[in-house]
Amino acid sequence: MPDVLAYACDDTASIFHKTTIHLREPGPGEIYFEVKYAGVCHSDIHSARGEWGPKKYPLVPGHEIAGIVTKVGEGVTKYKVGDKVGVGCLTNSCGTCEMCTSGYEQFCTGDEAGLPGALWTYGLDADGNPTAGGYSQGFTVSENFACRIPDEIPFEAAAPLLCAGITTYSPLKRFGAGPGKKVAIVGMGGLGHMAVQIAAAMGAEVSVISHGRSKEEDARRFGATHFYATSEEGTVASLASSFDLIICTVSAANLDYAGLIATLRPLGSFVNVGLPETPLTLPWRSVIGGNRIVAGSNIGGIPETQEMLDFCGEHGIAPQVQIISGEDITEAYNNVVDSKVRYRYVIDTATF
Ligand code: NAP
Ligand code: ZN
């Protein structure tokens, strides 16, 4: 297998430079694909900057990956050369534990053959060595951890679905977003703008709670019927007991959680998917008053990821992306943290 070009950073300053990485030939049951596009998720930034704990450098992030299969290993049946595939946060799991067999590979408990649990994209491989993510021109993965990208989805916009799409689709489905349900999306960035489109396509009445007014027009275009800005005094208090379901995608910890949870109707659910570095203080009074549910949600399993891709294809839903080159990654990270991205940067690997 030839070495391929990739972009890496060397420490928590997250300054990216071009490098070459070595990838393995696809073994039995594996495919190799040329990565064409890779999304920049805020989780890449938390990881690269050490906000979720120490990382091994040089680090090649990227877990929103879209590409075209160019080689298949022995016994591969799902894909052939030329197929459009996507890979998200997971690259392998035992396939036999209770979690894997029920479609929750992200919670794999491991097997006796030595796999400790799910293998994460740009985490540690089964042999304990670090792996590279999708800011690269190639990727080798088990065919069971690649998903098919429907032709209806513009290819250059597909990659963010592999994380932003599934991370919002999964809790929206699990908590019953649909006709007759009032759903609020807090934070309209990469995850949030997908949550709005998906919840609207599921038939829910969608509100966006953003920290300013600048995204209002876009929110309505994505399918929201109400828009609220927390920068305007009294906004959160005025929404008390309004929503059946809230999906909170905010990447920062300075939120009025007590106020937001109180915007749920009794029995409503507040699902947090944002993962800032500082833990939140849970306001139990807002939770207990109203029998409300506070939940978390961690990406989604492989069958549900394929289901989400097919759903987006059928409903004409796609991320709104800004295509960037490898040299733009460093600046893109700062822009994401400053909420300047509209709504996902996607790296075109042909620029490497
Ligand atoms: P993003 O594009 O940066 O969006 C985050 C949004 O949060 C921003 O667009 C902004 O929305 C709001 N926000 C940012 N800073 C804020 C502040 N200081 N105060 C209030 N609101 C603020 O990030 P993303 O890629 O969507 O990821 C969001 C979070 O989800 C990250 O923490 C990421 O690590 C996490 N994540 C979790 C999972 C999972 O499985 N649970 C998967 C992927 C990502 P407004 O401008 O609308 O306010
Ligand atoms: Zn992500």
Describe what you observe in this structure.
- The structure is a single chain.
- This protein has helices at 42-48, 98-101, 155-158, 164-174, 190-201, 216-221, 235-238, 257-261, 284-288, 302-315, 329-337; strands spanning 4-9, 16-21, 30-39, 65-72, 84-87, 90-92, 119-120, 138-142, 147-148, 182-186, 205-210, 226-229, 243-248, 264-272, 293-296, 321-324, 344-348.
- The protein is of the alpha/beta class.
- It folds into two domains: 3-163 and 318-351, Medium-chain alcohol dehydrogenases, catalytic domain (Quinone Oxidoreductase, Chain A, domain 1); 165-296, 3-Layer(aba) Sandwich (Rossmann fold), CATH 3.40.50.720.
- Strands 3, 4, 5, 8, 9, 16 and 17 form a seven-stranded mixed sheet that branches. It has a six-stranded parallel sheet with strand order 12-11-10-13-14-15. A two-stranded antiparallel sheet has the order 1-2.
- The longest helix has 14 residues, at 302-315.
- The chain starts with a strand and ends with a strand.
- 47% of the residues are buried.
- The model has no long low-confidence stretch (mean pLDDT 96).
- Zinc ion (ZN) is lined by residues 41, 43, 63, 163.
